[in-house]
Amino acid sequence: MNTNATHHTVRFRLAIPAEQYISFYQGKVNNVVAYTQDRQRIQFPANTIRNFVTANGIFGLFEMTFNANNKFLEIEQLS
């Protein structure tokens, strides 16, 4: 986890095949649970990663940025 006075980031990998992600679209599952590179458990709304869905699902390394109050600011796909 990277930190500074105004925000911090966490990095994590996702490997969610399209067949599994369809549960998010159908409203059966609302949140994604992942583990950061430093083994912290994080949970966030599935719609946070909707822009990264491909025909195969969602795969890659992601970085989330939060403000000093742990409010979500942005997510970026790194690979």
- Spatially, the strands of the biggest sheet line up as 1-2-5-6
Structural class: mainly beta
- Alpha carbon gap, first and last residue: 18 Å
> Based on CA inertia axes, which overall geometry fits?
globular
Order of helices and strands: EEHEEEE
**Largest sheet features:** 4 strands, antiparallel
DSSP strand count: 6
What value does the average pLDDT take? 91
Evaluate the radius of gyration: 13 Å
Stretches where pLDDT is under 50 for at least 5 consecutive residues are none
Counting H and I runs of at least 4 residues, what is the number of helices? 1
Helicity range: 10-25%
- What is the beta-strand fraction? over 45%
Structure write-up:
The protein has 79 residues and is mainly beta. 10% of the residues lie in helices and 51% in strands. The chain has one helix at residues 18-25; strands at residues 2-3, 7-17, 31-35, 41-45, 57-67, 72-77. The strands form 2 sheets. A 4-stranded antiparallel β-sheet has the order 1-2-5-6. The chain is globular. The model has no long low-confidence stretch (mean pLDDT 91).
